[in-house]
Amino acid sequence: MSKHLPKIISREDAAKILAVPNIRTTIGLRNRAILQVMYRAGLRVQEVCNLTTEDMDLEKGFIYIQAGKGDKDRYAPMDWDTLEWCKKWALVRAEWFTKKGIKSDYFFPTLKGTPLNQRWLRFFFADLSKKTGVYIRDGKDKKEIHPHIFRHTCFTECLEDGLTVREVQELAGHASLNTTMIYLAVRPEVLANKMRNRAGADA
């Protein structure tokens, strides 16, 4: 069994990546919303590609993920920022497809209405790495980021922001709590700060 910790990026590097898409264009706004959903809701690549308009509850702020890993369904709540980006995209999406006379069930389709694919999303993230200079360190190697980095970063930040391990397990759709608990060890400086503050309080 692998003992390697998940690779993540800092909040500052995540912000650099989120700032890349040109949101004045249709594709740019779609891509910005995709990044937001992956970063703040922790969706897997194929889950993003599979999302339909009916899976997005933009009134209550939930994403219904059907047949995720292990063929399991789950709900992922959206924070306010993610909900706003999805609402912005939903409006532009509707205008675009109405103008073009195209029908599509997918929430994040290509501009022809067809579903996105994993290969494109992986290429997209690699391109973002090059444009922002954000990379991950894998042993001695410096590698381009990939979509799962956002998922790992999402759950790490959720734990840092006060969610319980059980809550993050439900958000992630993990079958085992042990899978979720590994994120507790990803950013040791957070634990170190808590320990130092504790020591100061005891002094």
Structural description of this entry:
There is one protein chain. With 203 residues, the chain is mainly alpha-helical. It has a single domain, classed as Intergrase catalytic core (hpI Integrase, Chain A), CATH 1.10.443. Strands 1-2-3 form a three-stranded antiparallel beta sheet. Strands 4-5 form a two-stranded antiparallel ribbon. β2 and β3 form a beta hairpin. α2 runs antiparallel to α4 and α2 crosses α6. The mean pLDDT is 89.
* % residues in beta strands: 5-15%
Number of domains: 1
Radius of gyration: 18 Å
Q: Identify the CATH homologous superfamily.
A: Intergrase catalytic core
Return the CATH topology: hpI Integrase, Chain A
Q: Per the principal axes of the C-alpha atoms, what is the gross shape?
A: globular
Please state the second-level CATH architecture.
Answer: Orthogonal Bundle
CATH class: Mainly Alpha
Largest sheet: 3 strands, antiparallel
- Rounded to the nearest angstrom, the distance between the terminal CA atoms is 41 Å
How many H/I helices?
9
- Strands side by side in the biggest sheet: 1-2-3
The residue-averaged pLDDT reads: 89
* Uncertain ranges: none
Estimated helix fraction: 40-55%
Topology, number of strands? 5
Structural class: mainly alpha
Order of helical and strand elements? HHHEEEHHEEHHHH
